[in-house]
Amino acid sequence: MRNLCPVCDSETSDSFILEFAVPDGWPCPEVNEVKLCSECGFIWYDNDMSQANYDEYYQKYYGYHLNNAYNRTRLWNIAQFIQSIMNTNAQIVDFGGDDGYLADHLIEIGFKNVKVHNIGDQFANKPDLIVASQVIEHIYDIHPVIDSFYQALSSNGMCLVELPEAQLFSKRDWPPLLDYNQKHINHFNVFNLDLLFAKHQFSNVNRDFIEYKPLNSPCYRALYQKDGHKSIFQDVKFHIQENDFRYLSKLKEIDQPVIVFGIGDIAMHLLQKSSLDVVYFIDNDPIYSGQILMGKPIKNVIDSDEPILVMAQGQKDSILEDLKKRGVKNEVIVL
């Protein structure tokens, strides 16, 4: 049973019953309670099945008519997207890839290391990309599967997911059951799919919406990077520290008193870390008029002949134009 939200463990806020006739002996539920999460908006089926029941169903009964023009077009589209983001030497796993239609497409366009992972298979050693196309919406026990992606992937490896998008589907009136068939037991929107992957240390690095017209099916395609949040933080740290070193090195070369024109975040940050000899500050923003910064006044009039230091970056051109209009004779130093 899935009494609580499979994504965030919150309570149900609304539900309705969806029933199906099922052939004798099939491990499929006749009754599904379609539930809405009160917190993240995830929609899911609660029934008396288990992941083992669904695994048995997919192993014994699923797959007929998958090799059709619609699926071939869809998988070729995914292969082309993968070609745009991955080197052909990358190790790729098609999770739930059945008979390998996507793998065949990838090999056709030059990829050398492509494996298909089906129920009961062991993951290939540290793949660079796991593709889960039209799969996650079928899985009863979601968290162990996403965790297995994290554990299997190489450092900074990625997971590409494509599935029907619940919010967009809700605006359609065809097909009659929309996306609420026997096999699609999870109904994600952008927010709760990202939330699910974030709970397993994945960050979204690319997203898109795909329309598959033959089935009137709006899909969400998302690329998640393992430990992507850590990579983002390290990139931020590196670039800021690198810029600090570069700009502070330039400031150290200024060995005379200066007038600083422009009090933005860059100036305030660098001034706090430098030993620059500032006579006073100039800024056109009236909120600074009459204020004191680092013991020096902030003015709107240049009334001495020291060099003017322009530390701003985004407003640099407008400040230089302002100085030109003022007709000042001071030397201008641009950081």
If helices are DSSP runs of H or I spanning 4 or more residues, what is the number of helices? 9
CATH class of the largest domain: Alpha Beta
> Radius of gyration, rounded?
29 Å
Give the CA-based shape: elongated
Report mean pLDDT, rounded to a whole number. 96
Question: How would you describe this protein?
Answer:
The mean pLDDT is 96. It is built from 9 helices and 16 strands. The strands form 3 sheets. Strands 5-4-6-7-10-9 form a 6-stranded mixed β-sheet, sandwiched between helices. It folds into 2 domains: 67-226, Rossmann fold, CATH 3.40.50; 247-334, NAD(P)-binding Rossmann-like Domain (Rossmann fold), CATH 3.40.50. Helix 2 (69-85) crosses helix 3. It has 335 residues and is an alpha/beta fold. Strand 9 and strand 10 form a beta hairpin.
